[in-house]
Design goal:
globular, 7-stranded mixed β-sheet, Jelly Rolls, 7-stranded antiparallel β-sheet, KduI_N, mainly beta
């Protein structure tokens, strides 16, 4: 067995108001995603998204079903989005092999039975994934940065000049409910997702990388009038419930992957919160 998924339950916003730092981190932060020759993740009951990491070092790893799913194989009733955050690596889906370069993505649809992750020649294969329940089978599709829908937002004078790569969204690839993309902050910019927003129709997860070992990101969450923060390092992820804002500021620029699941596929479905209204 090389696939290990742990369950986390949903949290009511009134309860979260009373969490201390340790409880906040225990409930929402995913500290360790990459374990040698294993698949590790969290099954959150927020829209039943699975957030995880895959780190084949010197052996191929099969995507195995887990007890939470009560299925004969992992993608029997699910879809999965994979983004390579390490060295070039190969992924095999039902006999077809795909090579993913750094920051390239692969969507694998519901019904795919055999998914195998191969180590890179350097042993630096790191694959981040989100998986959501699916009601229909869509084709497996590789998406590179050149295939993405690209938007540049913000400005250096506001410390939030950034480029958004919409990789696994409905304008690029057909999915049931899963959406994933990547935001790269320009040098000198540290703020992501500002102005902040909520969206009761969807939950979200953030994964931070491209960050030096001695740098960190302060991730902000909570209801707009009752915000909290979690300090994060590279290769860590955070769960954002539908009632929570999700924004961050780093001690340097960085890259983060956002993933969503829920009611719709409308990327622009957001309830914007002005910076002056945050408390």
């Amino acid at each position: 067995m090389h696939t290990f998924i742990h369950t986390r339950y949903s949290t009511h916003p009134e309860d979260a108001k009373h969490y201390d730092t340790a409880k906040l981190r225990e409930q929402f932060l995913i500290e360790r995603l990459f374990v040698s020759n294993e698949i590790h993740g969290i099954y959150t009951l927020n829209d039943r998204l699975i957030v995880g990491g895959i780190h084949p070092v010197d052996m191929a790893i099969n995507l195995e079903t887990v007890d939470q799913l009560k299925s004969t194989y992992f993608l029997e009733r699910r879809e999965i989005g994979l983004i390579n955050v390490g060295a070039e690596t190969d992924i095999e889906v039902d006999g077809t092999r795909y090579t993913l370069g750094h920051k390239e993505a692969l969507y694998v649809g519901q019904g795919s039975q055999k998914v195998i992750f191969y180590p890179s020649s350097s042993g630096e294969s790191y694959i981040y994934f989100n998986s959501a329940p699916a009601h229909k089978a869509y084709p497996t599709k590789k998406v590179g940065l050149d295939d993405a829908e690209v938007v540049t937002l913000g400005a250096l004078e506001n410390s939030n000049h950034r480029t958004i790569y919409k990789l696994l969204v409905n304008s690029v690839v057909e999915t049931c409910q899963l959406q994933m993309g990547m935001t790269l902050l320009k040098p000198g910019s540290v703020w992501n997702t500002m102005p902040a927003h909520t969206h009761d129709r969807r939950m979200e997860a953030y994964f931070y990388f491209d960050l030096e070992e001695d740098q960190a990101v302060c991730h902000y969450m909570g209801q707009p009038d009752e915000t909290r923060h979690i300090w994060m390092k590279k290769h860590q992820a955070v769960i954002s419930p539908p009632w929570s804002i999700h924004s961050g500021a780093g001690t340097s620029n960085y890259t983060f992957i956002w993933g969503m699941a829920g009611e719709n596929l409308d990327y622009g479905d957001m309830d914007i919160v002005a910076p002056t209204d945050l408390k």
